[in-house]
Amino acid sequence: METSVDRIDGLEELFHHKLAQLYYTEHELVEALDEMAINTTNDRMAEGFADHRDETRTQVQRLEDVFAALDRPAERREDPVLDALEAERATLEDAIEDDDVLDMAYLNAGMMTERIEMTAYEGLTTMANHLEYTDEIRKPLESNYEEEQSAYRELSAMETAADMKSLWDRLTPS
């Protein structure tokens, strides 16, 4: 796995760099989603994290298909943005003893991650369009983007869900 960045001299090289970062991100998120699904005490969140973990495995396969369509080996390149989010999640897990507060930290982490992933897929799709890549490359990126949007909507809906009301009531001062 590459960590350093040499010189990027063009849009195609930037596309490959960002694709490798997103491939790394999706791989790492499979494990993170599994951990959050296990550690959350909220059944709805646990199910949502587990479902998205399974979706993320499919997203990894789609990215491998993109690499294949580009006739390049699938490559992971560390992503400092994801690494920082994961470090923050680990710090909060160690610092929070209240299960409900930890669930809120997970909800927030999930929403932040989905927004970052959506932005990454938007950027890759924009570059793919300008590079005039075929649907074989664009469609998997678009499918992953749509799934990230759906996951974000589901997490956002949890903020106001009836089963979360008692949690919010307990956590917020009167």
From TrEMBL:
Cross-referenced InterPro entries: DUF892_YciF-like (IPR010287), Ferritin-like (IPR012347), Ferritin-like_SF (IPR009078), YciF (IPR047114)
Pfam families (alphabetical): DUF892
Species this chain originates from: Natronorubrum halalkaliphilum
Protein name from the UniProt record: DUF892 family protein
